[in-house]
Amino acid sequence: MESCNCIEPQWPAEELLMKYQYISDFLIALSYFSIPLEIIYFVKKSAVFPYRWVLVQFGSFIVLCGATHLINLWTFAPYSRTVAIVMTIAKVLTAVVSCATALMLVHIIPDLLSVKTRELFLKNRAAALDREMGLIRTQEETGRHVRMLTHEIRSTLDRQTILWTTLVELGKTLDLEECALWMPTRTGLELQLSYALRQQNRVDVTVPIQLPVINRVFSSNRALKISPNCPVARLRPLTGTYVPGEVVAVRVPLLHLSNFQINDWPELSTKRYALMVLMLPSDSARQWHVHELELVEVVADQVLDCLI
């Protein structure tokens, strides 16, 4: 023993156990030596990564860990003092680098978390900007449809055509499930369903003009949301699990009722209102937006201008 300066293992060797340990140390060392190569590749490809020196430190730590496992391959048999010294140096270096890496992570992790927080903030902000841009594009598209609708309305002098064109174009522009117009009857005490997009065989349906919801709409020049269950909004039978969409209503001033051949109206000198009801598609989560309500109000004004 003194002539070869060798160190004996601490316990008798078991051949199968030693073989598994030997192979495991070899594979561990091989893996540890390959990981730094992948880190180097990442650093080269990631030009904006702010903590390159952290990756260098990790690479050094991993290489030293691999070196300890590699040197350990010579300790499964009697080995020289030189091997023991090399193993000791490798372990000391690994311990120093490991402790430095652990201490470094204490300061780096909060920064990394803040980076992730900023990333999430920027993603949310980008998503919000995308939604705003989509809304702007929708408003621009809606404005274009309004101009087209105004042109269609002004291109005819026939009052019946004006009203029907208004309903049809509004239905296309806003993708409505239903758009209807309720006109006052001859007595002025009721509103009659006179135009409806989806009802081919229209029947005479009337509602009292003194309903609170009608009074509320007639007393305002704005497009107002109304309950889908009120009489003027119940434009199709409720069957199955049908869930009606949101409904708005707006008044349409009628200054010259004699121009309309409905219920043989006589000429009336007093101002009367028709009621336009617009329903969004059923069984959907779509809601009315402010710019859509403004569009409906503009169209109602355009109809008034053409009827004067």
Automatic annotation (TrEMBL):
Record-linked Pfam families: ETR1_N, GAF
GO terms assigned for molecular function: ATP binding; ethylene binding; ethylene receptor activity; metal ion binding; protein kinase activity
GO cellular component, as recorded: endoplasmic reticulum membrane
Compartment(s) where it occurs, according to its Swiss-Prot or TrEMBL record: Endoplasmic reticulum membrane
Family matches, as Gene3D superfamilies: 3.30.450.40
Major location category of this protein: endoplasmic reticulum
Species the sequence originates in: Rhizophora mucronata (Asiatic mangrove)
Family assignment from sequence similarity: Belongs to the ethylene receptor family.
Keyword annotations of the record: ATP-binding, Copper, Endoplasmic reticulum, Ethylene signaling pathway, Kinase, Membrane, Metal-binding, Nucleotide-binding, Receptor, Transferase, Transmembrane, Transmembrane helix, Two-component regulatory system
Residue span(s) of domain Ethylene receptor 1-like N-terminal: 17-115
PANTHER family cross-referenced by the UniProt entry: ETHYLENE RECEPTOR 1, TWO-COMPONENT SENSOR HISTIDINE KINASE
Protein name: Ethylene receptor isoform X2
Lineage: Eukaryota, Viridiplantae, Streptophyta, Embryophyta, Tracheophyta
Protein topology in the membrane: Multi-pass membrane protein
Cofactor(s) needed by this chain: Cu cation
Record-linked SUPFAM superfamilies: GAF domain-like (SSF55781)
Keyword Coiled coil among record annotations: no
UniProt domain GAF: residue ranges: 158-303
